[in-house]
TrEMBL record:
This is Universal stress protein. Belongs to the universal stress protein A family. PANTHER family: STRESS RESPONSE PROTEIN NHAX, UNIVERSAL STRESS PROTEIN UP12. It comes from Kushneria pakistanensis. Residues 1-146 form the UspA domain. InterPro entries: Rossmann-like_a/b/a_fold (IPR014729), Universal_stress_UspA (IPR006015), UspA (IPR006016). CDD domains: USP-like.
Length: 154
């Protein structure tokens, strides 16, 4: 059973666990892994930028894409660069919502499953507006597997 799997990665432990799980699924069923990083521009640090929610001065989307590509390649090589077919995708979140960006790519690629972590790097924001993984699980047209990595204390 060939499966094409989308794995959103943000550099968190939870996302790393999702990638490891997706690799196991791919080994068992074949198919292609699609690794996705959604670029989030660094916030401004000056007073006006902070008040308006602007990006840092001098930041370009090219920098974001380069950093995203680096993050994906590092995550892949940290696994020992498995022999699975893999494609890297970096998105600048034109849709404005990571959950919609993930689902739009899943639809465009026709993936069979999305495997993602339940806790990303923006936990505080997730407490207020709901987690991305929760939203994806409700709107995705395919299977969504969410992995929770407990805190070291928990």
């Amino acid at each position: 059973m060939t499966q094409n799997i989308l794995v959103p990665l943000d550099g968190s432990r939870s996302a790393r666990m999702a990638l490891e799980h997706a690799c196991l699924m791919q080994r068992a069923g074949g198919g292609t892994l699609h690794l996705l990083h959604i670029v989030e521009p660094p916030p401004a640090t000056d007073h006006l930028g902070v008040l308006t929610g602007s990006s840092a001065v001098g930041y370009t989307t090219a920098q974001g894409h380069e950093q995203g590509e680096t993050l994906l390649k590092k995550a892949w090589s940290d696994l020992g660069t498995p022999s699975a077919p893999v494609e890297f995708h970096v998105d600048d979140n034109r849709l404005g919502r990571p959950d919609h960006t993930i689902v739009a790519l899943a639809k465009a690629l026709g993936v069979d499953a999305i495997v993602m972590g339940s806790r990303g790097l923006s936990d505080i924001k997730g407490l207020v507006v709901g987690s991305v993984s929760h939203k994806v699980s409700h709107i995705a047209p395919c299977t969504v597997i969410t992995l929770h990595v407990p805190d070291a204390d928990g």
